[in-house]
Amino acid sequence: MSAGQRPGDHAQVPSQAQVPSHVAVIMDGNGRWAQLRGFPRQEGHRRGLEALRRTVKNAADLGIEFLTLYSFSTENWRRPATEVSFLMGLLRRFVEKDLAELDASNVRVRIIGGRSDLAPDLRMLVEHAEAMTRDNTGMTLVIAFNYGSRDEITRVARQLAADAAAGRIAPDAIDEAAISARLDTAEMPDPQLVIRTSGETRISNFLLWQAAYAEFVFTPVLWPDFDRAALEEALAEYRRRERRFGGLSEPTDRSVGAA
Ligand code: IPE
Ligand code: IPE
Ligand code: MG
């Protein structure tokens, strides 16, 4: 490591050109993983947390700069109260137990999603995790908790309306950048790759604005089984994709112009 470098600094990682800077994951299939084995759903969530820890290490290792993990959606409140409180407890324990190690690994932690519905102690933990790791320079780990895109965009709309009503912003000044800057993901690049495990092929209210041009990779692997090979396979699939952003791929440009 050269002078001034810290563990996990991106300059250390070779061949990162082919690795997307921001990978987001819809971690799905914990319940089915447990059901297949005759375990209670909670066991699936526990094993899911192990997969999360593994994935954080693997992603940092592979040179991913931002890793966003969908942990609890605004719709997940519809689950039985016992499951909801188990999932809350899991986040609490994750922050309490893993924060020191994440910090030592130079990981910056951010939590996106609505904060006002969280228990006060959980909110304080989350704020503490962010404050403690704010100046770290390695991978940014973004936990989407009580997150829903519609909720996030609605909060932005409310804030912009209040600013406009108070004369702090002119309606004409509301552009895409003004919206992006007020999303929970402000100052983060959009994800180039969104992975969903467990074979489901829907977005479930995740990063609707930010993933406008993301590549989606759906894998049948259930989240507790997601490992290094599964992550590398998703990255390989991403590299095979052609991203066009509404334009044309290079070789066909001229044929269209001539038509
Ligand atoms: C993902 O696993 C974890 C959360 C949504 C919190 P699920 O709990 O959705 O697992 P399945 O979809 O029932 O298998
Ligand atoms: C999406 O999974 C939310 C998370 C992974 C946290 P769900 O299991 O809640 O999604 P649906 O209900 O199958 O769409
Ligand atoms: Mg599910």
TrEMBL record:
Alphabetized InterPro entries for the sequence: UPP_synth-like, UPP_synth-like_sf
Chain positions recorded as substrate binding sites: 29-33, 41, 45, 73-75, 77, 79, 196, 202-204
Residues that hold Mg(2+) according to the record: D28, E215
Cofactor note: Binds 2 magnesium ions per subunit.
A GO CC term assigned to this protein in UniProt: cytosol
Pfam family, one: Prenyltransf
Essential cofactor(s): Mg(2+)
Active-site residues, as the UniProt record annotates them: D28, N76 (proton acceptor)
Entry's Gene Ontology molecular function annotations: ditrans,polycis-undecaprenyl-diphosphate synthase [(2E,6E)-farnesyl-diphosphate specific] activity; magnesium ion binding
Keyword field contains Magnesium: yes
Catalytic activity, EC: 2.5.1.-
Entry-linked HAMAP family: ISPT (MF_01139)
NCBIfam families found in the cross-reference section: PRK14830.1, PRK14834.1, uppS
Subunit structure: Homodimer.
Full protein name: Isoprenyl transferase
Organism: Bosea caraganae
